[in-house]
Structure formats: structure tokens, C-alpha cells
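Journal club prep — side note

Before the paper discussion, L.F. wants everyone to see what a predicted structure for a comparable chain looks like in C-alpha cell form. Sequence:
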Amino acid sequence: MNDQEAPPFARARAAAGALFFDDSSRVLLVRPTYKPSMDIPGGYVEPGETPYEACVREVQEELGIQPAIGRLLVVDWAPLPKEGDKVLFVFDGGTLDGELLKQIRFVDNELSAYEFHPVEELDGLLIERLARRVKAAATARELGRTVYLEHGQAAPTE
């Protein structure tokens, strides 16, 4: 079989983000300057970079802090018709204490603010499938598990 006969394969763009909490178990959401909806800190994986490395880099670039990033909570296969195949990784950023919160600076001007919200109130603050992904990640954190999702929803296991 030559190259012209090879079947097509997915060429997914990868992105990674961190889920941070405060002492009241509320989730850190950030307000991007380039879109109307809130998000979690993170961004696209660059060539030669792992999703974990991208998460660490994006948190530093967006928030100006270098907290320890923990284990993988969620992997979400979430393609979009206009953007193509995507795979999204969410890592446990842990609990941010007052000292670390005081150090947050929006150094790259991609973000304008951050807020903490209860997990139960994420619907309406985030786009629908991101809200599902973040809620699944918060549950995975509580259960000490890693979860595979498709479009922000638990994927069939059979």
C-alpha cells in the first residue's frame, strides 16, 4: 500500500488545563479577554511538548504562578466541526492558598480576572461541555480516579 492509499487518521489538536480549588472546595474560573465565556487556566499543547508540560507552562503564562500540578483527572475527546479533532487533558492543580493567590498576575493579557465558584454553579458560567468536563474532573478528584470522556460526558465502557 502506498501513501496515497493509506486510510485517513485523526490529527487531534491537544490542549491541557488545570483545575484549582480554594479552601471551600470551589473551582477557580478565569475570564479570558478574547471570548465571552469563562474557562479554566490552560491552552494548546505545543510541538514537542507533553500535555503535562503544556499545563504547567500555560498556568505560568496565564496566572504568573508555578504551583505544583498533580495527577491527570480527565481526558476528553471533544472534536468540533469547525476546528476538527481535539483531545483535552485536565490535571489536578490542588488547593491554592492565600499566599499563592496574592501572587497571581495576568502577565500575558489573555485573562482579565479570576473567580472561585461552587461546582454546582458551573452551568451557565462555562460553555455546556466544558461545564460537564470540569464537573467530571472535580468528581474524579474526589474519587481518586482518572476519567475518560467524550464531548464532556462519560464514554461507554463496553
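L.F.'s comment for the group: The chain has a mean pLDDT of 93. Keep this in mind when we get to the figures.
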